[in-house]
């Protein structure tokens, strides 16, 4: 059996059985535990399986908590929901760009990508290249200060001309939301 065939077989077993001991994999495949460890290394690096104290386990589906915002716990069913792709390939959901930005601000090193939806076009866009309009005069019925996301700066500027607010790039937007939150309620000095 080639290493890729053993990998496929190991994946299938873990998929079917939920978990698998390394010794058991070694016995079934007729190879040493060393070889099993070598075989699974790319699988663990790609986040396809987990190495646990007990052996190998299925990566729990990232959608488990996906219906609640990772930051504030609100539902994430609206079209303003933001997806945060972690460096370890897990996916988190935020209810809106407000929480998406704050979450990113908290966990920068662990985040590979932030995916938003364009407020007007309803298309998927990467947050780093998006424009953020904060404090516009519309109701999203989510978190304050409200953050609207636009893929095109031009659209964002046109929208701001009608509805007001302040326009930011990604990093500035994180700062702006953080500052407004810090300045709010309990901590105003
Ligand atoms: Zn939230
Ligand atoms: Zn929200």
Automatic annotation (TrEMBL):
Residues 3-58 form the HTH deoR-type domain. SMART domains: HTH_DEOR. Transmembrane segments: none annotated. Keywords: Transcription, Transcription regulation. This is DeoR family transcriptional regulator. It comes from Bhargavaea beijingensis.
């Amino acid at each position: 059996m080639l290493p890729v065939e053993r990998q496929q077989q190991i994946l299938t077993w873990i998929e079917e059985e939920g978990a698998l001991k390394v010794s058991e994999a070694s016995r079934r495949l007729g190879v040493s535990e060393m070889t099993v460890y070598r075989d699974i290394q790319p699988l663990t690096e790609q986040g396809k399986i987990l190495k646990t104290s007990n052996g190998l386990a299925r990566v729990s589906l990232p959608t488990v908590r996906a219906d609640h915002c990772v930051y504030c716990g609100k539902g994430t069913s609206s079209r303003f929901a933001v997806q945060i792709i972690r460096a370890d390939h897990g996916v988190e959901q935020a209810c809106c760009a407000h929480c998406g930005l704050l979450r990113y601000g908290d966990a920068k090193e662990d985040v590979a990508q932030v995916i938003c939806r364009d407020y007007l076009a309803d298309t998927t866009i990467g947050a780093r290249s998006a424009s953020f309009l904060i404090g516009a005069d519309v109701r999203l019925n989510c978190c304050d200060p409200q953050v609207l996301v636009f893929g095109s700066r031009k659209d964002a500027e046109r929208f701001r001309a009608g509805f007001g607010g302040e326009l930011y790039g990604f990093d500035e937007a994180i700062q702006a939301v953080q500052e407004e939150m810090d300045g709010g309620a309990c901590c105003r000095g």
